[in-house]
Amino acid sequence: MLDAVGENAIPSQATFQACYRRRQTRWHHTAYMRSAKVMLLRRLLVAEKVALEGARVFDYGFGAGGFFLACPTSASLFGVELDPMATVETTEALCAQGFAHVDLRPLDVERWRENGLLKLRYDVVICSHVLEHLETPVELLHMLGRCLAPGGVLLVLLPIHERRRDSHHVHEVTPELALGWCREAGLAVARRFDSDHACDCFQPVFARKGALGRLAAQGTSLGLGLAAKLLGEDRWMPFWDRLGPKLGLRPTQLALALRAA
To answer: Side-chain half-sphere of 155: how many Cα atoms within 13 Å?
Structure first.
């Protein structure tokens, strides 16, 4: 991907792939653009009555490992990410938190089908904000479905109702499009949330470019994350699901719990 120049520059693919380096502080994990995804994933697990104690958890595109940190230390953690440095840093952070079984590996995009972790079976598989980046999302969904152990669940998060499309997104996702991908992959939707209305009015801030734009986005993200903690992270999403439509806000994330059909 070519870089543009100036205030409206498009981040390069290299910049995108390295965006999780040195992002392991408590403040980074509190920021809303990260913690909102964890809140939605936990909500799906609670709704599906899935316990993580002793579970085998695989996160395809784990970022900085935010969801892993919400798991009990008895869980076995597996994952892939594009940046080898982020993989090492996240492994070190998780081990420091007391996780005994951590197997995180860098992902070679050109040979992603050959990754050894896709040959194993897991109780919980996570695919958060990945499919919209792929030319063939159904293929990945199908392979992740094959990674499910008997009774396992695949949790998928996708952005919807984007006011400005991310330059790294191949697809502009709608619920109908995403549900079609699931059907083609042979997966059944066990649970669905159209959620995260709170983020809707702040999308223009998060889409701003340049140094000042990034500073505004970071401050807003941290402020929202702190507000969610004050209200209670288990109550934040349901609260906004009720209030958001009354204020004319749209859901910005589609959350799906998928099982083998």
So the answer is: 28
- From the list 254, 259, 261, 260, the residue with the least C-alpha distance to 43 is 254
Residue type at 111?
R
What is the CATH code for 13-260? 3.40.50.150
- Tens-digit pLDDT profile for residues 154-183: 999 999 998 877 777 888 899 999 999 999
Cα–Cα–Cα angle for 202, 41, 154, rounded to 5 degrees: 130
- For the chain, the distance separating the N- and C-terminal CA atoms, rounded to the nearest angstrom, is 37
Query: What does the block give as tokens for 15?
Result: 């910049």
Structure token digits, residue 170: 């191949």
CA dist., res. 66 & res. 3, Å (int): 29
Nearest to 255 by CA among 110, 154, 166: 154
Q: How many residues does this entry show for the chain?
A: 261
Matching residue, tokens 């209200």:
231
- Is this prediction's pTM over 0.70? yes
Comparing C-alpha atoms, which of 147, 153, 63 is closest to residue 113? 147
Place of tokens 């159209």: 194
Residue boundaries of the structural domains of the chain: 13-260
pLDDT tens digits, residue range 10-53?
A: 344 555 555 666 676 788 889 898 899 999 999 999 999 999 99
